[in-house]
Amino acid sequence: MRQLIDIANSENPPCSNCDKRDRSNMYYCNTCGQALCLHCRENTHRAKMFSTHDVVHMSKCAKEAKKCLQHGEHYIMFSPLQNTMLCVNCFRDLPNEIRTQCVDIDTAHAQAAKRLERGQNAIMDLQTSVRDGIIALKGLMDELRRNMDSEKHTINTFCHGMQEAMAKTHATMIMEVQRQYESKERIYRSQLVVLGTVMPVLQLHLVLCTTFTAAANKYQFLELCPSLIERLSAVGNLSQPVRSLQSSQIKTNYRSEFAQSLEPWIGPAAVSQHQSELAATSRMYDSVPPATKKQQTALKNKLLDGDSSFSTHCRSFESQIRDLNQQFNSIKEKVGELHKDISALRKAQTPPLATRYEMLIRECLHLDQSLER
Fold first, then answer.
1. Checking CA distances to 253, which of 124, 155, 331, 358 falls within 20 to 30 Å?
2. What's the rounded Cα separation, in Å, for the pair 221 and 290?
C-alpha cells in the first residue's frame, strides 16, 4: 500500500511549497529535486538564488526512462525470478540459467498487466458476489423485521381472542354460580319459614308440661296425664322436622367449559394445524439449494491460482490437508485389514497382530499430533 501511494505521488506529486496538485501545470526542479506548481514557479522560484536551477515541465520528467542506480544505464530487461529490472550491465552479470528467463521491459510490462488484470477480475467477481450477498442479507433483514411484526400481531390477536373467550366463559360461570346460590337460598328460606311456625307450638307444649308437672297433685296428675300425653303425641307426629335434601355445595364444570371455549385456539386440532404450518415453512426454507460443487470448486481454484501471499498459504494448506487425508486413508485401510484378521483368528493373541496393533497406535498418535498443529 505504501508503494502504491509513492507511485501515485510520483505520477502526480504535490507542490513542495503549497501542496497543490495540478497535473497539466506542474514543473520539476532537477536541482532541488522537488515539484513546483505554476504559481510557485512564477513567484517563489524566480529569485536570483534560483536562477541557475534546471526547471522542466513535469511531462518531460515523467517520460524519461528510469536508470539503474548502480550503473546509471537505462533499464532494458526484467528478471521474473528476482522481480527486478536490469540494465545491460546487470543483465550481463547474471548467470546463464537466470539470464535465459529474463524478458524485455515491454514484454514484462504486458505479462504483469495480464496478471494484474486477472487478479483485478477475480477481485471484481468476488466484489460482485459480496455485493449480491450484502443485498440478499439486507433483504433477509427486512423480511425478518416484517416477519417479526407479523408474528407479534398474530400472537397479540391470538391472545386477545383467548382473553375474550375466557372473559365470556368467566362471566357465564359466575352467573351459573349466582343462579345456584339463589335457587338453594329460596329453598332454605321456605324451610326456615315452616320450621319457624312450628317452634312456638313446641315451646308452648313444653311450658304446659312443666307447669302441669309442678302444679298438679297426684290425683290431678293421674286424671289429666293421659289426655296430655295424647296431645303431645299428636303434636310430635304433626311437627316432625324434616332434614333438607338440598346440599350447600355450589359446583360448576368450569374446567370443561374453559377448555371447550379455548378449543379453537389451543385444542389438538389447532395445535396440529399450527405444527403443520411450521413444518411447511421449514421445508420451504430448507428447499433453498446451497452453493453447487462446481461453484465451490471454481472459487477454490480461483484462490489457489493467485500469486498473493494468501494464495500461497492456501496452496500450502491444501497440500497439508492432502497429506493428512492420505495418512488417514492408509491408517483406515490398515485398521480394516487388522479387524478382518482378528475376526478370522477369533481373538487369538498372536505376536504379529499385537505388533501391528502397536504400530497402528503410534501412527494414530502421530496423525493426531499433526492435526493439532
1. 155
2. 117
267, 258 contact by CB (below 8 A): no
Phi (first) and psi of residue 28, to 5 degrees: -135, 130
Q: In a 3-state reduction of DSSP, which class is residue 101?
A: coil
pLDDT band for position 4 (cuts 50, 70, 90): very low
C-alpha grid cell, residue 220: 290431678
Question: pLDDT, tens digit, for every residue of 114-161?
Answer: 988 988 888 898 898 889 989 999 999 999 999 999 999 988 998 898
pTM over 0.85: no
Q: Residue 249: which of 307, 184, 201 has the closest Cα?
A: 184
- All residues at 6 or more sequence positions from 120 whose CB lies less than 8 Å from its CB, including other chains: none
Q: What is the pLDDT of residues 73-98, one digit of tens each?
A: 888 888 888 888 988 888 888 888 88
Contact (Cβ atoms closer than 8 angstroms) between residue 179 and residue 243:
no
Whether the Cβ atoms of residue 64 and residue 95 lie closer than 8 Å to each other: no
Query: Hey, what's the cell of 371?
Result: 492435526
Residue 68 phi, psi dihedral angles, 5° rounding = -70, 130
Give the cell for residue 4: 502504491
Beta bridge partners of 286: none
Q: Cell numbers of 151, please?
A: 408474528
Q: How many other C-beta atoms can be found within 10 angstroms of the C-beta atom of residue 339?
A: 10
